[in-house]
Amino acid sequence: MAVADFLITLVTFIAIYSLFGIGLNLKFGFTGLIDFGHVAYFMVGAYVTVVLTLPADAATYGGIGGFDLPGLFAALGPLGSLFGWVLGVVGGMVAAALVSLAVGVPTLRLREDYLAITALGIATILNTVVKDEDWLFNGPYGISGIHKPLVDVFPLSLGSFTVNMAVFGLLSVAVFAYVAYWLVNRFREAGRTGRIAMAVSVGLVSLWYFVMPAIDGGTVELTKNVLWLFDPTAGPNGGLDYDRFVLILAVGFLAGGYHWVERTINSPYGRVLRAIREDEDVPQALGKETFQYKMQGLMFGSALAGAAGALWAVNIGFVSPDQFASTITFFAFTAVIIGGTANNKGVILGTTVFWAIRNGTRFIDVPSQYSIQLAAARLILIGAILIVILYYRPQGLLGEQDYDIDLPGSATGGSDDV
Amino acid sequence: MVDAGLLDAIVQGLITGSIIAGGALGLSLIYNIAEVPNFAHGDMITIGAYLALVFNNPAEIPFLPAFGSAPLPAAAIVGVVLAGALGAAYELTIFRKFRQKDADIITMVIVSLGLALVLRNVVLFLVGSKNIRYESASVSNTNFDFLVTGAGMTVRTTQRQAGDVVTTGLWGYPWWLLAGGLILATAVGYGVFRAYRREEGFDTVYLVPPKILGTAVAIATAIVLGALIQLAPQGTDPIVATRIGLSIKHLTIVGVVLAAMFALNVALKTTKFGRAMRATADNMDLAEVRGVDADRVQLLVWVIASMLAALAGVLTGWFATNLTPNMGFTLLLPIFAAVILGGISSPYGAVAGAMIIGVSMDVSVYLLPSHFATYRIAVAFLILIGVLMIKPEGLWGDV
Amino acid sequence: MSVLEIRGLDAGYGDLQILTDVDMTVGEGEYVTIVGPNGAGKSTAMKSVLGLTTYMDGSIALNGEDIAGTDTNTVVSKGVSYVPQSDNLFSTMTVRENLLMGAYSLEEVPEDRLREVLDRFPILEERQMQRAGTMSGGQQQMIAMGCALMVDPDVLLLDEPSAGLAPDLVVDMFDKIDEINDAGTAILMVEQNAKEALRRCDRGYVLVNGENAYEGPGTELLNDQEVRERFLGG
Amino acid sequence: MSEDSSVAPSPEETILAVEDLEKHFGGIVALDGVDLSVGSGITGLIGPNGAGKTTFFNCLTGFYTPEVGSITFQGADITGSRPAAVAKSGMVRTFQIPRELSEMTVLENLLLAPPDQSGERLSGAWLRGDAFVDDELSVRERALEMAEFFELDHLLDEPAGNLSGGQRKLLELARALLTDPEMVLLDEPLAGVNPTLEEKILDRIHDLEAQGYSFLFVEHDIEMIMNHCDRVIVLHRGEVLTTGTPEEVQTDDRVIEAYLGEVDV
Questions:
Q1: How many structural domains comprise chain D?
Q2: Where does the ABC transporter domain start and stop, copy by copy (chain D) (predicted)?
Q3: Domain boundaries in chain B?
């Protein structure tokens, strides 16, 4: 497998978990709620989306549904089924938000440590319910045959092999060019240590991505890596395959979620959330109904987790209760803290670091009977990093983000110089 | 054939409660005095169980030579002591540093979560994920059938021996003896209660509250009387019958946990250092003004709590007859529920909370349709959330 | 030799400096009061002796030995006892346990000392087994005072002992302090009830904005026109 | 109760009425049946340390729920209301120890205060219509004005945690005033503030009083209370010892005894 294929899988994962992490960051980073049950909303989003989009006659499925929303709208035209799927995702997000509303009513008034433990407990209970109630979502057998949006369209071919290669190849190169441009700008802004760190890491990655394949596998590997969007083996003339589409979809959702949260945070609304995080008594004394704000923050964060769940289902093509263990929540906490609590860019960075450690180590050659040891060693490392970061750099790699409310015609631009 | 009934569910619940209480004792110490809601406590239980395994059944651990097997009690003692040393390590290398930085409670929660991740995976790394048993003599269950007949009560004990159910005992009590015994037991209990209670009118502090002591003495008297005076069976045609399944294992677990609870309470209430621990929990600044070395107190808290966690781990592993890297983590939720329910400030509270949780788990499993059995932990949790909704500071609060 | 001698003390909390160049002395068996407006740093001065603040500069000598910047429990074991203004007892513990905690820094509980304290505050003996947190405000103040006396300190630091007490109890409290002082214990007291405090003490200091403003015998300060106008309400 | 009818607000002037308020903590009776009424203007609340003043404030503003008694603000019963509801009804408080939001900037601390901002609602924050911009601009203008007045304008972009003790007091006060209150409860607003600023704050309070705002404040500085209050309430051991004009209170023997110690000079 070419490195590009591995990276496409990894980046898809990172995009999905980043969206999940951004939802957590809204709760934990900006509002100060320790929701140890965040994974429950990931699960609710995944299951509800899957069931809403699943064909009614799905084989080996014995739960409620499927409601086949894409099939319902397929008559409207080629994009109808996509619309149906999007509607399913919205349904998943709403369901996640509603479940968190039900959870929040009794728990949000509790002390922060009690909130953490009850949230964890409720998530565990919800997971048990999904696992044990076969009639609900097929119990431990999970759901396969999941609806994948636009799957029939792929591999996407625009014509002859050459046309495909030229179009998708150029797009690939354009993305690289943009990344390079962005990196150069960051490099200019960075300090001495930052520059060294950037130079070293960019150098190593390029060595691994561009140089090594060229030496190892020759030009075919190198071409695959450079023209990564183009898959020559997909279809008769090559083209854009479905994995790459899922990557684009996931990155698109992440971008949407990111901007949506940024817009929410960089507003008077976000100001109240942060005030609650620091000292709930103050906004209360100033007349803000903090309980409502906490509830909305919880629901919004849960909805984003739900969207991440919907993407997860499409990416894996199968959901089952044991994919949603509480360790997923803890991983997200770790990622958020590594990157920088209350920093959405930090969440993406932290998630990248986390999954790079978690999955990147697959290139370490160990005999297969030691795979458990390798997996355990990774998690030991991650646990240790979490503690070390909290001690030496509690603000995370990037620290808290800056806030700025965009206003036309305003001279004081918030607090961008903090 | 007599069915196990509500009584059996309650007895099983008390045993489950004891297992939870073992963990809750240590967690409440850490929670109350070190002020860490310790999410690593479940995994400290796991580590303790595996530490005893090292000496009890080293052959099961891949990288260890099979150097023979110590009896479980001896291995447990060594494991518990080693766990204490690990507890000191947690405090010295991690929690003391965060305390010195005045870390807030959220940070402490997440630090303990990181520690939990490390501990669980250390077990996975060294031992792997397979189920392992302790090397110990198998203990058979004895079923006690209580048959209430017109003439009184008949007790029949049965055991499964070599695949067959064998009746091992049959005796009974006529009505007059039952009534007399109960009256006698009540009288003894009440007498102890009266003799023990002092200075009415104040919030007098006792090592054991008089009402509990009186009740316990009454129950003990009834059991002793019942064991000593065994008359002829009073017929085997029951009006009402119920069965309780018990073994020495169960009684040992309950006994060990109650002994640990009592020892901890005596230490906290009567020794100078125990007082210092309680004072630190109450008001850490003032304790320092009175000359208490808070660092020493916290160190001891972690040592004792880790030892209690290890004890709970050994009991859990022995009770469930297998050890897995997840065994402690699955106990974490009921343990937290017990501690918050019981109020984090006293060993008795923690144990009382654990018993409430344990009994409600097993009784609900008995009362609910059979496929709800997997919701045992959910039941514990619903009770906790219910209590917190009414009293957000816990059943007995922090005082 | 003075029991406690503070010279040129700068101290505060974290980066925030509260005290600037404060000087204070408490002689053997002397009764010294610190008065001054709110926020003047009176309590901070007292807490600095115990190492409960951030030490910045200057010296604090206890019986000639420099203790500036030392751990609280070390200072306490050297003969300083302190009654904080609030949160000054272990509310979940019994009165008796509180008194035993008072003697924590000693090898064993001095029975004769316990006797003396119980004789001085009879209510404490009567209520030995009661939870301290369930007692009234005045009684709680007595427990706190009793705890501090358990170690037979060279100097007793009192932070607003009359705060929150009823007028008749305030007089009692000051009488108790007089008794303790008469028995030979040096006292350094911060008090808001300035008139009463200055009337009873040997010497007084007035702190303003974290600096020494006035000092002198209590009655002299009490009669000083300027001090009266500025701090004693005319 | 020795309410002097000549200075007690008449029923139609009464803004805040408290009846028989009780609050206990363990064995300590913090408030033992507080009865009082507060009219418009500046009312001072004095009493020795531990008299229950801060507990009283906490009960008034919904941070504590009293066990017994009722609180009526502008004719509405607010006993047991949540803090936010009390603040919205027009009674806002400051904290004795300033509770600045230390990681947020001074400007953000101020911007938080004004009520009913369009962008404070989720819909407003997402849609960002004209109201969003108008509100934010006007809120900023008011915040800047307030900051200027309290001499905090050079610190707008500082995290509030970097302010000095006195500046925190000012921020606290400025924030409270930005909520458009009817009545402001000030918990020792002048402790630790330098004399020139103190003078300014008092001037501002008098200005605001002239505009119809009312103040109830706890202060230790007797002189200040006597010179600036229309009416004084003396709280002692959780009860109202007396109420009256500054002159009356000043000459009340019980007050002098309770607050200043025995009278012998």
A1: 2
A2: 16-262
A3: 6-138+248-390, 142-246
> Is the same domain home to D83 and D213?
yes
Each residue of A384-396: pLDDT tens digit?
999 999 999 988 8
Q: Band of the pLDDT at B92, cuts 50, 70, 90?
A: very high
Mean pLDDT (chain B, rounded): 87
Neighbours of chain C (3+ CB pairs under 8 A): B, D
Which residues face C83 on adjacent strands?
Answer: C158
pLDDT band at D262, cuts 50/70/90? very low
- pLDDT greater than 50 at residue D264: no
Q: Residue written as tokens 């951030």?
A: C54
Does one domain contain both D215 and D265? Answer: yes
Region D116-127: mean pLDDT is 89
Per-residue pLDDT reduced to its tens digit, C14-42? 777 889 999 999 999 999 999 877 667 88
Does D221 sit within 8 Å of C37, measured CB to CB? Answer: yes
Alpha carbons A299 and A104: distance in angstroms, whole number: 9
Residue B13 tokens read as 């619940």
D189-218 pLDDT per residue, tens? 877 666 677 787 888 888 888 888 899 988
Nearest CA among D239, D178, D207 for reference residue D42: D207
Does residue C25 sit at the B interface (CB-CB below 8 Å)? no
Residues of chain C neighbouring B286 (CB-CB closer than 8 A):
84, 87-90
Angle, helix B294-320 to helix B6-29, in steps of 10 degrees: 150
Distance from CA of C86 to the nearest CA of D (A): 9
The reply to whether residue A373 touches residue B125, judged by beta carbons under 8 angstroms, is yes
Fold (CATH) for B6-138+248-390: ABC transporter involved in vitamin B12 uptake, BtuC (1.10.3470)
Q: Are residues D137 and D26 in the same domain?
A: no
The class (CATH top level) of C1-79+156-166+188-234 is alpha beta
Nearest chain C alpha carbon to D223? C233
ipTM value: 0.84
How far does B289 lie from chain C, in Å, by closest CA? 6
* Shortest CA distance from A415: residue in chain D: D157
Last-in-domain residue among D116, D134, D162: D162
Give the 3-state secondary structure of chain C: CEEEEEEEEEEEECCEEEEEEEEEEEECCCEEEEECCCCCCHHHHHHHHCCCCEEEEEEEEECCEECCCCCHHHHHHCCEEEECCCCCCCCCCEHHHHHHHHCCCCCCCCHHHHHHHHHHCHHHHHCCCCEHHHCCHHHHHHHHHHHHHCCCCCEEEEECCCCCCCHHHHHHHHHHHHHHHHCCCEEEEECCCHHHHHHHCCEEEEEECCEEEEEEEHHHHHHCHHHHHHHCCC
- C84 and B293 within 8 Å at the Cβ level: the answer is no
- Choosing among C77, C93, C126, C156, which should be mutated to test the B contact, i.e. which has the most B CBs within 10 A? C93
Dig out the tokens for B299 from the structure: 């160190």
* Set of chain B residues whose Cβ sits within 8 Å of the Cβ of C87: 283, 285-286
pLDDT at B261 > cutoff 70: yes
Domain ranges of chain C: 1-79+156-166+188-234
- Say whether both D7 and D94 belong to one domain: yes
Q: Does B85 touch chain A (CB under 8 A)?
A: no
Mean pLDDT over D64-92 rounds to 91
Q: Do chains D and C touch (3 or more CB pairs under 8 A)?
A: yes
One domain, residues D11 and D75: yes
Domain housing D198: 1-100+180-265
Same structural domain, D9 and D43 = yes
Has residue B237 got a pLDDT over 90?
A: no
> How many contacts (CB atoms, under 8 Å) link A and D?
120
User: What is the tens place of the pLDDT at every residue in B310-361?
Assistant: 999 999 999 988 899 989 988 998 999 999 888 777 788 889 899 999 999 9
Q: Which of D260, D263, D264 to mutate to test the interface with C (most CBs of C within 10 A)?
A: D260
